[in-house]
Write a structure and sequence with these properties.
The protein is α+β, with helices and mostly antiparallel strands. The protein has helices at about 1-20, 20-40, 50-55, 65-70, 80-110, 120, 135-150, 170-190, 375-390, 420-440, and strands spanning about 125-130, 150-155, 160-165, 195-200, 205-210, 215-230, 235-245, 250-255, 260-265, 265-285, 290, 295, 305-310, 315-320, 330, 340, 350, 355-370, 395-405, 405-415.
């Protein structure tokens, strides 16, 4: 029965060895990084028609049309089955590597190894012998020197074992554990997170629904400003917000700008974009009329406008367009000819016999609101990974010494910076030996 199971057991061990191979983990990391780059380049979570319209005429990288993007799940890459398989595969590889390699290495480091014969020390990575007038006294002196330098020492009759930097063995385990927790947080966020993009004009608010279905956080936009360079190009957008946790609360002021998000009650608010909400127009002697603007993508990426009739019966319409809150507004007739320019706060301009005056342009703040339950796991995993990386820099060193008559035999091992350990060990041993000799021959 046991003989029949031997081939299966051997195949299982080979499979586990392959899964825990560091080279496989590196390949998986590169594949995930490449996939994440693709997910950054291709917009995520849009309607199917968006990809068909965008990539059928101009295939992505000249290779993938809209149907291929949808078929490969690149429109929702981070929740696609093949990307989740890569994450699960990497997590399994890290766990198996920890169980088969790092955990046994830590256990071996915790055990004291007892070398009894000098010939055993001669086979170690670092080995040396020194003459001494009194081997046991030199061993005593070496014991004191090691303890003074922070080594843990285990002393036995005529020999000792010492080690330092055992925390370095914990580092790789923490790195693997941190990566697994990080991956788990990313998956939780991809499936359990919520995302909302809205344009808000000053004086307006947005009420969010809590995860339990009741009233949630209310965001009120108090003011919105755009900082521009001397050429008029936008450099920074800033929103002054008022946060209300409960209806009727006085509100808590907050600010959000590009690269400076706001985090509150598990919600992150990003300053993502800007737009134009409405204009204040005066038609002849009329009061200032607040008229909403809409985007005109057929005229450009950042063009807003409205169609305005110039007659009481709604006839003779004109098109008013804007590219920034600074103006000016261009006015076009039905035949596409430009009829005039309206400066913000400037004098009236007669268009089709009607005096038009642009009193103000009100910009809108483009806010991206995310609720991500995986954030604590992501940050926790990153913290564990960072701690493990720091601990992994600590060199784990082991040393053995045997007093054999008038000779002191020393051997050592080190998992990193072996050259530095080899260069420093002879000086330590010479100090232990020469101290006793100086005591006999000195004044």
């Amino acid at each position: 029965m046991s003989a029949s199971l031997a081939p299966a057991r051997s195949a299982l061990l080979r499979g586990l060895a392959l899964l825990s191979d560091l080279r496989l983990a590196i390949v998986l990391l590169l594949a995930i990084a490449l996939a994440s780059t693709i997910g950054t380049a291709i917009p995520q979570g849009e309607e199917a028609g968006f990809y068909l319209e965008r990539y059928d005429a101009h295939p992505w990288l000249g290779l993938l049309k809209g149907s291929a993007v949808l078929g490969l799940g690149l429109d929702h890459l981070y929740t696609s089955s093949w990307f989740l398989v890569l994450l699960a595969w990497l997590s399994l590889a890290l766990l198996l590597c920890s169980l088969r390699r790092q955990w046994p290495a830590l256990q071996a480091g915790l055990r004291w190894i007892d070398y009894r014969q000098p010939r055993q020390l001669s086979k170690l990575a670092i080995a040396l012998s020194r003459d001494s007038h009194d081997g046991p006294a030199a061993l005593d002196r070496l014991d004191v020197l090691l303890r003074q330098r922070g080594w843990a020492v285990r002393r036995q009759d005529g020999r000792l074992a010492a080690r330092r930097g055992l925390l370095g063995r914990v580092g790789p385990l923490l790195v693997h554990a941190g990566m697994v927790v990080f991956i788990a947080g990313a998956v939780v966020g991809a499936f359990g997170g919520q995302r909302l993009e809205r344009f808000l004009a000053p004086g307006h608010s947005l009420e969010l629904i809590s995860p339990r279905g009741g009233p949630g956080l209310e965001l009120a936009l108090e003011a919105f400003s755009i900082d521009r360079d001397p050429q008029g190009r936008p450099e920074q957008y800033t929103s002054e917000l008022l946060l209300r946790d409960q209806p009727g609360d006085p509100g808590q002021p907050a600010r959000v700008s590009v690269n400076h998000p706001l985090r509150h009650r598990g919600i992150t608010v990003y300053q993502a974009d800007w737009g134009l909400a409405r204009v204040g127009l005066q038609l002849g002697r009329s009061p200032v009329l607040p008229l909403p603007l809409q985007t005109l993508p057929q005229l450009g990426e950042q063009v807003w406008g409205l169609v305005l009739p110039t007659r009481p019966d709604g006839s003779v319409p004109v098109l008013l367009t804007l590219r920034s809150e600074l103006g000016p507004a261009e006015v076009f007739g039905a035949d596409g000819q430009r009829l005039g320019l309206l400066a913000v706060g400037g004098e009236p301009v007669e268009v089709e016999g009607l005096p038009l005056r642009l009193r103000e342009v009100l910009p809108a703040s483009g806010l991206l609101i995310k609720r991500d339950p995986g954030v604590p796991l992501v940050y926790g995993g990153f913290a564990v990974l960072l701690a493990g990386g720091v601990l992994s820099l600590i060199a784990t060193r082991q040393l053995w010494a045997i007093a054999d008559g008038d000779r002191l035999h020393v051997g050592g091992l080190c998992n990193r910076d072996l050259t530095g350990f080899a260069d420093g060990l002879p000086g330590l041993v010479d100090e232990a030996v020469s101290s006793r000799a100086a005591g006999r021959g000195g004044p």
